[in-house]
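Sequence and structure are no longer studied apart. As an example, we show below a sequence and the tokens encoding its fold:
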Amino acid sequence: MKKGQAHYTGVAGEMLLAGMLSYRGLHVAPTRGGAPFVDLLVSSESGKKLIGVQVKTTEAAGREQGRKGSRYMHHYDWAVGRRVAMDAPEDLLVALVDLKLLNELPDFYFVPVSVIRAYFKASIRDKGKEPSYWRYMPRAEELGPRRNDLSPLLERLEE
């Protein structure tokens, strides 16, 4: 990865997700940086309901296991950072964007920050210390059903 590439990866994920949500009839406004936990403000079509979304993007999230010829998707991997994992408001919605190296259409997963926080709290409890690098690595069977599912977002925007 080139120096500074992570910034551009993050911006690409935010813009791609904003475009996809706009295409589906939602009003989306990027915060343009500076907002501690919110990258996108998303509103219902009527504008009566508004929520903030934190976006975490990676170039390629999928991690396979197994031997050649019998490889399978085992888990995904996103850097989320301690601040989001432990300090974000409990009702925050996190959008995990997998750019898939742009070899195909990117995927997104909406996950409540409470799920991510529980993942790290369990890890801290098991290991007895905080991780040095905050990586959210859910198993494929856990996250797979959320692939490109807008319902967690749409449920929060119901009027």
Q: What stands out?
A: Residues 5-23 form the longest helix (19 residues). The chain has one domain: 5-63+72-157. The first strand starts at residue 27 and ends at 30. Strands lie at 27-30, 40-43, 50-58, 62-65, 72-76, 78-79, 93-98, 107-112, 135-136.
